[in-house]
Amino acid sequence: MTPFVKILFGQVILLAMLGLFRLTAFASVDDAQTFALQAAEPYVKQGFQVREDYWGGDLGSGEKKAVRQQLFKGNEYWFWLGTEVERAKISVHIYDSDGKLAEDPDGWEKGHFAAAHVIPKTTGSYFIIVSVEDSPEERTHWALVYGFR
Question: Quick check: 88 and 62 in contact, CB under 8 A?
Answer without folding.
Answer: no
